[in-house]
Specification:
heterodimer, A: 307 residues, alpha/beta, 6-stranded mixed beta sheet, 4-stranded antiparallel beta sheet, 11 helices, 13 strands, elongated, B: 265 residues, mainly alpha, 12 helices, globular
């Protein structure tokens, strides 16, 4: 297969899945390069979990194809190199942590070198207790350890931070970062932007089963709308209206309002042109609000309510 | 055989319960025989029962219920397949359907195992577990029966073969439960379908012994394969093994292929 020579960790072409009348995933074309962390963002029900389940061969596509680590997700040799953390972790409540680790370890047949013990230690999990007696947090720990125990080349993480307290989240993020340093590829599905921002280099935004955009975090930030307030020396009404008219005409200004000598602007991209237009109105003070990726993100989501 | 071993281990507690139950049933069967042995009055009562009721109780032809083979047939070999069948259907339904429904199957399948391997190893474990419980039944009976004369004039090989036939009958239904679970991913549906088939087969077999009209249909009933005559005196026929095994292989093969092809739920 020449396609596998590309070396991508994940490659999908026109991947499509219907459930009855619902199109869960609609022609997904996505490439995840080896060694990168791709944040896969989207609201609940946008197709993130469906994508992961297609990659793992739990679901069969209605159209299109996917390739994982140069092979098929159905191939056990490919799955040996995958660590999967599902959004909803279902484990036999009668099993203990050690039962799960032992079973997975034997199936994977990968030499351990004390990695498992290290992870159990690090996450401070008691693996001898039945899973049914564990708290949600401890169950998540168990899932994380099971997913990372065999030092997989590809991590498929579906909403990994749900059910983790901030301390644990931090530990988890460290583990992800270390795995990436060791050369692992991470496919991180999430609806929480902060998490993706902390870990990912690129993001794909999924909306109603379609890929709305794929972009680096930096590009997203550059695109991000900035909110700035310009305080004018003259708080008169006429000058405010005049300034507002001038600034609002500048390309990139998507929103402009005024109140008592203050112009409130929302600018897409560079603020340079808007500032230049405003300077002749004697700007006394500039107040900037933090660039918010959330806004971008919501903009991609917002279209969802269309039609 | 990692998946196979794990299922055996996971079911060891419930299997132990069934093993104890089978031993208890052997004890019960053997303990009651002395009080019934040679009681012709019992036969008289029995004689007056309609054929259909007799068929349901499990007596055939001229074999007296108070004789060892009549008693064993009605008392022991009537209920043992039912017990094995309940155990087998439960196991078969959980093998794929149950574990898919509770979500544990998916995480298992994220490991380097094929669906086929998981399905077939689990089916093998179900077969072994039902066979173990069946074997305990006959072993405990063999150990307990001779002192009270329950084996008098019987060939032991027939008793063993009858247990094997009862196990085969149970396995055919366990395979149906496994198959429905593997195709639908639902434990409840699997139990329901297998149970309906078991009950229908049982009633059909009973009906066929008293109704000529039902005669041609009796071969459709797995119970007929098992209970064509007194299994204790005559031993089960080859059909009591061949047909359930053929049924098992067929439904398991079809279901496993379906399971490989479909989406997980």
């Amino acid at each position: 297969m020449s396609a596998s020579a590309s070396g991508a960790a994940i490659r999908t072409e026109g991947l499509t899945k219907h459930f009855g009348d619902i199109t869960a995933l609609d022609g997904l074309d996505l490439t995840v390069e080896r060694g990168e962390v791709l944040g896969f963002l989207g609201p609940n029900g946008s197709g993130k979990t469906t994508t992961i389940r297609l990659l793992l061969d739990f679901l069969r596509p209605d159209a299109g194809r996917s390739e994982v680590l140069g092979g098929a997700g159905a191939d056990p040799e490919v799955r040996r190199r995958i660590g999967y953390l599902p959004a909803d972790l279902h484990l036999d409540p009668n099993h203990r942590g050690v039962d799960v680790f032992e079973l997975f370890g034997r199936l994977r047949g990968v030499p351990d070198h004390g990695r498992l013990a290290g992870l159990v230690d690090r996450f401070d999990l008691d693996p001898s207790r039945p899973i049914g007696e564990l708290s949600t947090g401890n169950r998540r720990k168990l899932g994380i350890i099971a997913a990372f125990a065999h030092a997989p080349d590809l991590l498929l993480l579906d909403e990994p931070s749900s059910g983790l307290d901030p301390l644990l989240q931090n530990q988890f993020h460290q583990l992800v970062a270390e795995s990436v340093d060791e050369g692992a590829t991470v496919f991180l599905s999430s609806h929480a932007l902060a998490e993706v921002e902390a870990l990912a280099t690129r993001v794909g935004i999924l909306r109603q089963g379609q890929l709305a955009t794929v972009s680096t975090i930096d590009d997203l930030r550059r695109q991000a709308r900035q909110r700035i307030d310009l305080h004018l020396a003259d708080s008169g009404r006429d000058i405010a209206v005049e300034a507002l008219t001038a600034v609002a005409a500048v390309a990139g200004v998507v929103e402009a309002t005024a109140s008592l000598g203050v112009l409130h602007l929302v600018v897409e991209g560079s603020v340079d042109a808007a500032l230049k237009a405003a300077t002749r109105f004697d700007v006394q003070r500039i107040v900037t609000h933090d660039t918010d990726l959330e806004d971008i993100f919501l903009r991609y989501y917002a279209t969802e309510s269309d039609g | 055989m990692i998946v196979f071993e794990r299922l055996l281990r996971d079911r060891r507690r419930s299997t132990m319960g069934w093993v104890l139950g089978m031993v208890a049933y052997s004890v019960f069967t053997v303990a009651f025989y002395p009080s019934l042995r040679g009681q012709t009055s019992f036969d008289d009562v029995y004689e007056d029962l309609p054929e259909a009721i007799k068929a349901l109780v499990g007596t055939y032809g001229e074999v007296s219920i108070s004789s060892a083979p009549g008693y064993l047939q009605a008392r022991y070999f009537g209920l043992v397949p039912v017990l094995l069948l309940i155990f087998g259907i439960g196991l078969g339904a959980r093998a794929i359907g149950g574990s898919e429904e509770d979500g544990t199957l998916e995480l298992l399948l994220s490991n380097p195992v094929t669906r086929r391997r998981v399905a077939l190893e689990r089916l093998a474990a179900v077969i072994v577990l039902v066979a173990v419980v069946g074997a305990t039944g006959v072993i405990s009976l063999l150990a307990l029966a001779p002192p009270v004369g329950l084996f008098d004039g019987l060939r032991l090989i027939n008793v063993v073969a009858a247990t094997a036939a009862a196990t085969a009958l149970a396995l055919a239904h366990a395979a149906i439960a496994y198959a429905v679970g593997a195709v639908t991913g639902r434990r409840g549906t699997a139990v329901a379908v297998a149970t309906v088939i078991a009950v229908t087969g049982y009633l059909l077999q009973g009906l066929a012994t008293v109704s000529d009209a039902a005669q041609p249909l009796r071969w459709l009933s797995p119970w007929f394969w098992y209970l064509r005559g007194n299994v204790v005196i005559n031993g089960p026929g080859p059909e009591a093994f061949l047909l359930p095994v053929a049924l098992l292989v067929m439904v398991a093969a079809i279901a496993t292929v379906q399971f490989e092809r479909r989406d997980l739920r």
